[in-house]
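notes to self, project folder thing:

trying the whole complex as one job this time. last attempt i did each chain seperately and stitching them together was a nightmare. two parts in total, labels are on each line so i dont mix them up again. if this works i'll redo the older ones the same way
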Amino acid sequence: MSGTAKLDDMLIALGGGGKTAFVRTHFGISAFGVNAFAADEGENLVSEHDELGERAGKHEELYFVSSGNATFTVNGDEIDAPAGTFVFVRDPAAKRSAVARETGTAVVIVGGKPGEAFTPSAWERNAPALAYFGSKEYDKALEAFEQLLAETPDDASVLYNLACAESLTGKRREAIDHLKRSLEVDASFGELAAEDSDFDPIRNDPDFASAVAGKSDAGGTSS
Amino acid sequence: MSEKAYEVAHIEDLDRFPVDDEGLLWRPVRRRLGIAAFGTNAYTAERGDERVIEEHSEEDGHEELYFVASGHATFTLGDEEIDAPAGTFVYAEPGTKRGAVAVEPETTVLAMGAKPGVPHEISGWENIFVSFGHLRNGNEEQGREAMNAALAEKPDAWQGHYNAACFESLTMDREAAFAHLKRAVELDEKAREYAHGDKDFDWLRDDPEFPA
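result (full assembly):
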């Protein structure tokens, strides 16, 4: 729906320093990606990433520093970026990151893939729900991932995160079922599950051990 | 367009192309940086009492998000009036009437947009806007180069020849103006109708060669 919002009012802490504004989902935009990050002096403003990974969108990304001052690093080049600077990263393979040089630094990020209709990245679809893990609101995380699962029933990362939330809220059976399903879609989550403290409450369950071990082996032989 | 991994520009360094006589400046961002996946432009009102976003409705289906990058504006969104200092987002669905007026000097608004469900297409007419922008800035030669680029991109589109005719009329080249206008009318009779109401041709309207 058409509407308005102030960037400062949209920023939420996801844990791990810095704040995020989910601009695209806030307004229900579907034609391009848009989010914002804010950080204080010395904090990470944009975590290092490229746009090639499983959870990335292979997007072109336009960063606009809307306030403060940042230093970007793209493919090892340092870029001084005071408020008003555009940094456009065309190459999805380019490693990019930014650090805030002043308190109250904010950057608006717009993204999309040339020649294709826009689809949101897995990172963005999961991120608002993941925020509840940071604030230890596991019931809310559970609800958010159940909703995401209804939208994308075969998304391995949604299944995995739902399993985490179920483990942390005492839903042992559901957690193991969803973890198994996530491993069927993407066996690489097995390694993560073996180390993930979210599964501590169910780690001693024999079904957990067999799910993780079984699927890890399957992943090993098939790759 | 270079194919570097990345491009950097400061908002102060973007071109300033007047889009009308009222002080609204178009600051091309997509074009400057070579963005292909979505549309992005900035608009600046220098004085602080003029329009910064023209009133329109995006009837062609583009979703548009505006961000007040500096200064202070008052947006109209449908029937609502919105106070929009720097740092405000305004999102307008396709078909919603929107516009903005600056309330501070050097107010700049970023506009980002694309059409849902389809790959982004770059407007074929961007060179025409650039051409008239240069002309309004007094750079006739650069304007003509951009107009020629627009014509080369779509040599058989009436709109290109029509705009070239306007350009030549505004630069007082009667022969060139009539040559393009004639071609535009050959390609589409609509051009004749448009030419009658277009003040760009005022000084030529009574000329016997003007298409009746």
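what i see at first glance: Confidence is low (pLDDT under 50) at residues 215-223 of chain A.
need to look closer tmrw
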